[in-house]
Specification:
It is built from 16 helices and 12 strands. The protein is of the alpha/beta class. The strands form 3 sheets. Strands 4-11-10-9-8-7-6-5 form an 8-stranded parallel sheet. It has a two-stranded antiparallel ribbon with strand order 1-12. It has a two-stranded antiparallel sheet with strand order 2-3. Helix 12 links the parallel strand 8 and strand 9. Helix 4 packs parallel to helix 15 and helix 14 packs across helix 15. The structure holds flavin mononucleotide. The site of flavin mononucleotide (FMN) has 24 residues, from strand 11 and helix 15. Flavin mononucleotide (FMN) binds next to strand 11 and helix 15.
Length: about 400
């Protein structure tokens, strides 16, 4: 087996393990995948500006975000249906995260229910919610998350409708995965994955089972329900309603402008997640890194800004933190880890990033992630529209 030294190696190892249609479901982005690519390219436009003899014998990666302390700034992003990558699914993520002093965010569309994950790990999970049009079902789901011990809710606003992942259209990817003349060769040539699929319980959106009375609990029906419930007319008043309902910490995910970050804070969010959903939703929108500075400038003094999208290296984490992010979410990399080695694969992914962060801090002369600041960055970290320009525009309206 090839040695796994970095997250690109992990991705390639996952590619070999998974049928092409499953790998593409995880790896792909929307339409021309411009935004997905630019999430990575944005890091390549910046460099770090090292200082000499300014570090320390031991570097500190600990952070506090949404009032909670973690040993590393890397949190596991919510991803739906992760058992497609490996049978241990979201539980593997939750356990690996807990063992490394961080947290995983259980998706509403997870393949293990939030209670099932909670029963399998001795640490509270965060829970992610979609902007659904049905308030009663939203409340039922939120209650389930609360009863399962979740203390932090992340509402994903970048999904008013689902993005067009064209790789999935071409590959014949469906929920459930269907073995037919188009997909048979691909699936059959990954017998271990197929064996896991047929010897474990059906992969479905487990949080939605029994949620709507009278609805079939088949995987196809629940996947459709998840789409049908999305409400493109979801409004900031709905966010306020959620804020009133949920007494724990509330983070708003999908922020891509200073203006929306300010509204989220005004509506009572305890943190904002700068995110374009890893380029899986709107295409041709900016890289997350390119809007991070303007969001930090707008609300960083009032709230925690979390970064999401394209993190593949410790240097990426360090750059995002130098630009003001309090923590980083990683999505695809933990699913690659799950595909390659279950819980230990996810832990390996976290260990690789953690070692890279530590080494980078030492090499650029920073004693801790808390000490990172914009003076350690060179290059054009220019926000797409600077908050100054936005302020001027708002004032002129
Ligand atoms: C397979 C897959 C499923 C995802 N499902 C969800 C989801 O259910 N809810 C959500 O808020 N984000 C979801 N995301 C987006 C991630 O939370 C995150 O924003 C994105 O993966 C970050 O980019 P990265 O993969 O480059 O780290 C998903 C991402 C992937 C790759």
């Amino acid at each position: 087996m090839t040695r796994i030294i970095n997250l690109d190696d992990l991705r390639l190892a996952a590619k070999r393990k998974l049928p092409r249609l499953v790998f593409d479901f995880i790896d792909g982005g929307a339409e021309d995948e411009r935004t997905m690519r630019s999430n990575r390219e944005a890091f390549g436009k910046l460099t770090l500006a090292p200082r000499l003899l300014a570090g320390g014998a031991k570097r500190d990666q600990s952070i506090t975000v949404a009032g909670q302390s973690f040993r590393t700034p890397v949190l596991l992003a919510p991803t739906g249906l992760s058992r497609l990558a490996g049978r241990q699914g979201e539980l593997a993520a939750a356990r690996a995260a807990a063992s490394r002093g961080t947290v995983s965010i259980v998706s509403s569309a997870s393949s293990m229910s939030v209670d099932e994950v909670a029963r399998g790990v001795d640490a509270p999970q965060w829970f992610q919610l979609y902007p659904w049009g049905d308030w009663d079902l939203t409340k039922t789901l939120v209650d389930r998350a609360r009863n399962a011990g979740s203390d932090t809710l992340v509402v994903t606003l970048e999904v008013p409708v689902t993005g067009a992942r064209e790789r999935d259209y071409r590959s014949g990817m469906t929920i459930p995965v269907r073995i037919n003349p188009n997909t048979a060769l691909d699936v059959m040539s990954h017998p271990r994955w197929l064996l896991d699929l047929v010897t474990s319980k059906p992969i479905t959106m487990a949080n939605l089972v029994g949620l709507r009375v009278g609805r079939s609990n088949s995987a196809a029906s629940l996947a459709q329900l998840n789409m049908d419930l999305l409400n493109p007319a979801y409004s900031w008043d709905d966010v306020s309603r959620l804020r009133e309902e949920w007494k724990g910490k509330l983070l708003v995910k999908g922020i891509m402008s200073a203006a929306d970050a300010r509204i989220a804070v005004d509506r009572g969010a305890d943190g904002v997640v700068v995110s374009n959903h890893g380029g899986r939703q709107a295409d041709a929108i900016p890289a997350s890194l390119d809007v991070l500075p303007e969001v930090v400038a707008a609300v960083g003094h009032q709230t925690d800004v979390v970064f999401d999208g394209g993190i593949r290296r410790g240097t990426d984490v360090v750059m995002a933190m130098a630009l003001g992010a309090k923590a980083e979410l990683v999505g695809r990399p933990w699913m690659y880890g799950l595909a390659v080695g279950g819980e230990s694969g996810v832990a390996k992914m976290l260990d690789i990033l953690s070692e890279e962060i530590d080494r980078t801090l030492a090499l650029i002369g920073a004693p801790s992630v808390a000490a990172l600041n914009p003076s350690l960055i060179r290059g054009t970290a220019v926000p797409v529209s600077s908050s100054g320009i936005l302020d001027a525009l708002e004032a002129s309206l």
